[in-house]
Amino acid sequence: MKTIYTKLLAMFILLFLVGCDKDDDTIKNTNISQVEALYAPENNKFLNLGAQSSALFEWQSAKAEDNGVVLYDVAFDVEGGDFSKPIYVLPSDGKGFQRTLTMSFTALNKIAEMAGIPSKSSGKLQWTVWSSKGLDIKKSSVINTLVVERPGGFPTPDELFLTGTATEGGNDLSNAIPLKKTGPTTYELYTSLKPGEYQFISSKTGNGETFFINSSNLESGGSTTYTDDEKVYRIRIDFSDGSTTTSEIVKIELWFPPLGSYLFNLPYIGNGTWRAANKLIEFKEESWGRDERYKFKFTVRNSTGETDEWYGSINGDNQRPNDNTAEAYWYMVPVTDDYWSNSFKFNGGVDNQNADIDIIFNAAVPEYTHKVTVL
Q1: Which domain does 75 fall in, by range?
Q2: What is the DSSP letter of 152?
């Protein structure tokens, strides 16, 4: 029995030593070379990042001692940086297996911002390639420079909020007001402002990017000071070119074409909402029946003066709604000032009744809309 145990122990030790030898060989064979040439973009290549395009990065293959697979990362740094603390690193195409990297100009613009290059300005970025296999990582000694021109805009955040002492939500980020995304790069908000400061932020958690309006340009960081009386505004932001438009909403009126007059104004009550409260609605008697058509006129003031903007139904003509009518019936879209076209119709139950009429232009609704509530 002792002989059997001795043989088993000897076999175990032998297998252990063989395994160690194999491990040593594996460790030895993880050696790789560094990337010795960067092919594209060539050194000092100029890129206008305002274009809707992408850049192809390409380099020479690194060699593995065991002829195995080599992984690649592309590193970016500021001009004159030594890549000890690169500003951005990401794997090459194919999750690091390919010796190419395709990057959109939008992504490069973000890296340029991280490098401290201001919008609407030119600057330089450095890039190189790291090759790796296992724990062996080799930094290329070759570094190329990119000369980039940043557009006036910014990468469009997934969300955008308004906050600050001048706003309806105040400084408390939990009460920050969401803007409505109206396109791939555009946001819009109807809100009131009072004396104080305000800014836009991409997250309500407090670690988002911040933006502010300087004249009519969007800039990063900082805040805008508002000193005028409290008023209601429409703020539009386009991140593609960093432009903004701020217009005062002077008043909103309900146009009633059967009488050829405006029945009443709708006062602003906050949160992108206007309400005409407890209003008597009386249709007009015609030879063919009672007429109930209506739409809305916004009076808007900006640097060029006052203009009228009409909002009504997406349909040129409508039937009376009922309790089963889809919510989309009340959606409001820009229309012409035509006397009758694109008018809504009141529900028949509204005739000779008092009602609240609400216009809702905020991010809580899928589309800008209104509602009529009989009291």
Answers
A1: 38-149
A2: S
Does 370 lie in the same domain as 270? yes
- pLDDT digit string, tens, across residues 250-309: 999 999 999 999 999 999 999 999 999 999 999 999 999 999 999 999 999 998 899 999
pLDDT digits (tens, 9 = 90+) for 113-126: 999 998 888 999 99
Number of folded domains in the chain? 3
Any domain includes 24: no
Give yes or no: residues 282 and 332 share one domain: yes
* Length, in residues, of the chain: 375
Which residue shows structure tokens 């015609």?
286
Specify whether 267 is located in the same domain as 367: yes
Domain co-membership, 258 together with 347: yes
Residue matched to tokens 């602003």: 268
Closest by Cα among 125, 128, 124, 147 to 59? 128
CA nearest 345: which of 299, 312, 375?
A: 312
Would 314 be classed as within a structural domain? yes
pLDDT (0 to 100) of residue 66: 87
The gap between the terminal CA atoms of the chain, to the nearest Å, is 100
pTM given for the model: 0.69
pLDDT at 26 over 60: no
Which pair of structure tokens corresponds to residue 30? 């993880």
Q: Domain check: are 69 and 180 in the same one?
A: no
CA 313, 317, 319: angle at the middle one, nearest 5?
95
Residue 365: inside a domain = yes
DSSP 328: G
Helix (H) or strand (E) holding 54, with range, is strand 54-59
Continuous segment of H or E residues that includes residue 162: strand 161-163
304 within domain boundaries: yes
User: Residue 60's domain is classified under what CATH number?
Assistant: 2.60.40.10
Q: pLDDT per residue over 72-97, tens digit each?
A: 999 999 999 999 999 999 999 999 99
Confidence of residue 29 (pLDDT cuts 50, 70, 90): low
Q: Are strands 88-91 and 45-48 parallel, antiparallel or unpaired?
A: unpaired
